[in-house]
Amino acid sequence: MSEATPPAEGPRFILTVSCPDRPGLVYAVAGYIGQNSGNILESQQFGDERNGLFFIRLVFVVPAGGTVEALRAAFTPVGRAYGMSWQLHDARTPTRTMVLVSREAHCLNDLLFRYRAGGLNVDRPLVVSNHRTLEPVARSYGVPFHHLPVTAGTRSDQEAAVSKLAAEHQVELVVLARYMQILSAELCADFAGRLINIHHSFLPAFSGARPYHQAHERGVKLIGATAHYVTPALDEGPIIEQDVERVDHSMSAARLAAVGRDVESRVLARAVAYQVEHRVFVNGERTVVFR
After folding, report:
1. Among 72, 122, 142, 145, which residue is least crowded by beta carbons within 10 Å?
2. Same domain, 152 and 218
3. Based on the domain organization, do 167 and 266 belong to the same domain?
């Protein structure tokens, strides 16, 4: 008995679709891939009965020579016929990323380590800070560092400089890695759906300075972190990822802060990975995340 013929090898592509739910959606998408000699490697879908929306993420391979431009052109009639909001990416293409930081190093260091180790599909990150404190960290990983100081009177000019850098480097994703500045509504709108923040999950009970010391005083038993999209409503954007750690009375405030830094780093890293792997869909005030 002869062995089965293995599927054709070629570049991998990621197709993401969201649209009003209706019969025939999966058939139409699968038919498109078949018509282009593709082979589906991963498929995840979700129909939200609350609002009647349908979400699907497919990873597929096509024979060598297939291009993302040709595949996009071929899918355009399908997307139009079903009222789809869709994107098609070459899985090999890294996401151009800017990281905004202030003085705390843990999240930046973790992201840059993962980038250098090949764990995040991002182009060489661009690090921007309102302080010079973390310049040595960025330089140690061989990534560009830009110092853009900000005061209450220069906020508009500083944000304009951030936007200019993003445009010059064709930035697709902005990550706030413990960037201790509130962004304007205009900047939030410019990067809507591609601006990710990390914060401790004590909000709003322990908002403000020294949240881990406040938590220690209150004897909390769980601490955590939340990664979310940034919107003009402070810390209320759609949540991408969360995690918690159990703590107890024996831990000092310094120990709680150390545990908190670890949780923040890994939650942010997961959120960034989901984003650059095109796993996240904004669904109103919520998200759909295909892990």
Report:
1. 142
2. yes
3. yes
